[in-house]
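Tokens in:
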């Protein structure tokens, strides 16, 4: 379900491979139905563009991402990935960029104008990404995963800057930022909604002038000496649950094995004469217009 930013309109996904557009001002009118020809799989998620509000994105179980134009009620383009996507979110500050959470544990950021490769790949989760959302500033993302963790990301970096978890929190299916970007909300399989700070060490409330100066001084010191190994290690250290850490080690070994196998195959076949594909290009299988 996704609400239009300025109109009383919302889009709903369905199991019939189509997206229904409901206008709340026309109670008796039938919804407009959008879909890609010959598509038969369920639509997982839909999202309205927050800047170009006539553009709607949808992802389905057939591993496709489809863009629709509400002005013509027609699909614009369709891209097929290696894995299905569970969530999609538009950047509220950049009209052409959006992020998708994939079944291969990664988050991909795309530019709708150049769909043959991703702008960035965010890696750290060890299970399917079930939710992804941009912050109101468009500079950060929050994601929830089947591995029972929440991660915060800088848009331009490939790994998470923070990880949140509790013993009782189960699989995370929904995450979002508050409008001031200071807090994150999460909904998980244990039936609870949790509120988190986007900066775990930051405290709410009015700060005195002396306190603000001390914080600024400490941040300046950390920034100045962040190149030193010990300072960098302390700054980057995060406590990770044993299960997630072990799964990450297993995943790293599997990826290393796959890469070694691909290199051996490349060395002894005609693939050695072909141009290498980057990680941002490998996951795009096909594009249709």
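Residues out:
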């Amino acid at each position: 379900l996704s609400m239009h930013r300025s109109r009383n309109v919302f889009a709903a996904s369905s199991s019939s491979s189509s997206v229904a557009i409901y206008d709340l001002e026309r109670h008796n009118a039938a919804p407009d139905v959008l879909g890609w020809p010959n598509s038969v799989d369920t639509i997982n998620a839909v999202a309205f563009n927050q800047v170009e509000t006539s553009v709607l994105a949808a992802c389905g179980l057939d591993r496709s991402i489809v863009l629709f134009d509400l002005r013509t009620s027609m699909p614009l383009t369709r891209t097929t990935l290696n894995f299905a996507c569970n969530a999609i979110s538009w950047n509220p500050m950049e009209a052409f960029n959006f992020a998708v959470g994939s079944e291969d544990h990664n988050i991909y950021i795309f530019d709708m104008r150049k769909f043959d490769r991703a702008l960035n790949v965010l890696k750290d989760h060890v299970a399917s990404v079930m939710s992804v959302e941009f912050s109101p500033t468009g500079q950060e993302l929050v994601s929830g995963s089947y591995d029972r963790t929440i991660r915060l990301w800088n848009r331009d970096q490939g790994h998470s800057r923070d990880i949140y978890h509790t013993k009782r929190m189960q699989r995370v299916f929904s995450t979002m930022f508050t409008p001031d970007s200071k807090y994150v909300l999460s909904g998980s399989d244990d039936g609870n909604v949790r509120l988190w700070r986007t900066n775990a060490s930051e405290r709410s409330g009015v700060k005195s002038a002396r306190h603000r100066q001390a914080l600024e001084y400490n941040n300046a010191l950390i920034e100045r000496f962040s190149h030193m190994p010990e300072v960098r290690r302390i700054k980057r250290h995060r406590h990770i649950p044993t299960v997630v850490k072990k799964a990450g080690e297993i995943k790293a070994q599997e990826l290393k094995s796959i890469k070694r196998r691909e290199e051996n195959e490349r060395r002894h076949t005609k693939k050695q004469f072909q141009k290498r594909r980057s990680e941002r290009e490998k996951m795009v299988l096909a594009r249709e217009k």
